[in-house]
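Q: My labmate handed me this sequence with no annotations at all. I'd like to see what the chain might look like in three dimensions before we decide whether it's worth expressing. Could you predict it?
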Amino acid sequence: MSDINQPSVFEIARAGGASETVEHLNLGERVRQLRKARNWTLEQAAQQAGLARSTLSKIENGQMSPTFDAVRKLATGLDISIPQLFTAPKSSRVLGRRSVTRMGQGKHHVTATYEHEILAGDISQKAMLPYRATVHARAFDEFDGWVRHDGEEFMYVLTGRIEFYTEFYEPVEMGRGDSAYYDATMGHNVISKSDEDAVILWVTSQS
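A: Here is what I predict for the chain of 207 residues:
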């Protein structure tokens, strides 16, 4: 059992910023769900967290209350924050989804102004849509009006220089390493300003 001077599970969670409803969470079951979502055995999870296998087994089965140090190790081993450890998932969706897209192997979609390469295309119902875009356009009038869509968007310039047009702001020239975050319902367009086609990374929220 935990030392009486150690903070309680509820106090740890509240200190980390989790909702007070976490006092009803079965921590052992939560740890087991997180472990199984990663397809880890008890031994593998214990190694990742730097805990004894027997200790992790007792935590999962509710036979002991973890100390703060054990909680910290569990969160680190599971690669989540302490508040996340004490927060039940909002739905039954499987945790730990992952998609790796090798260079040049995304799904390509070509338009007159952009060449998009959709990343993580094998994952459906994503909360965000990441894609790499090569900007062919050299003038604003190459577009058929403003581009606008639902959600928010993040843009990062990978190579070249661009001019970023937005409906309610003056155009701004941007270079490699520059980024912008904006409301995508606002009209927006991008053109290349360098001799070569600029390449940018876009991440769009899925509303």
